[in-house]
Amino acid sequence: MNTIYIDFADLGDYEDFYAQLKEKLELPAHFGDNLDALSDVISGELKLPLHLEFVNMSVDQLEIFEDLLTTLEDAEDEVEDFSFAYYLEQYDDDENDSDAENATAE
To answer: DSSP states of 24-53 as a string?
Structure first.
């Protein structure tokens, strides 16, 4: 199975997302930068099996990209050999604890 990782650490909007997606996937020349086109290409033009993973998503990005996540979850249900997952960015608890201590100590 081919696994493609999309790193959301530097993504701010859909334009950034589609730029990274085009770098990582062989999308057809007629691909339009929208969710309908993405759904269509997953269901008929991408080389499968494919697992798509979004890494380093922030909580804010969950809201910004909510429609994208829904589209890919639907595609996962409808297209055999396509799967999708997303992961939130991780924070080091030790750093957050020391920051909180420094903020209260000042």
So the answer is: HS---TT--SSHHHHHHHHHHTS-SSEEEE
